[in-house]
Specification:
By secondary structure, this protein is mainly alpha-helical. It is built from 2 helices and no strands.
Length: 106
């Protein structure tokens, strides 16, 4: 509050040292993180091989044991069809595409 007679502020208006320190610290951290992210963005723009997604797939299934059991019980024919059935309903703008399917016998 401001003293009406002198115009000086009272101690209730002055923020504590801890509040000022934490505010300065949080602001500094936010600026540093922003600078680091800006640097990463510039690197990604000028060097398109720096951030590359490897051959990791969204879904990976090992059906080796299933195939062995089916073959053992003579339930696996020569031309086998694999069907992917999603659970639930895809989003309206979903563009579901199966890029590559490999069935490798080892």
């Amino acid at each position: 509050m401001v003293d009406q007679t002198t115009g000086n502020s009272t101690p209730a208006d002055t923020p504590s040292g801890a509040a000022v320190g934490l505010t300065v610290f949080a602001g500094t951290v936010m600026i540093m993180v922003g600078v680091f992210q800006a640097i990463q963005g510039v690197v990604a723009l000028f060097n398109d091989t720096f951030y590359v997604v490897g051959q990791k797939w969204t879904f990976s299934f090992d059906i080796t044991e299933v195939a062995r059991n089916l073959r053992k019980h003579k339930q696996l024919c020569e031309s086998t069809t694999v069907t992917f059935i999603p659970e639930g309903r895809p989003a309206a703008k979903a563009n579901a595409v199966v890029r590559r399917v490999e069935i490798v016998e080892q």
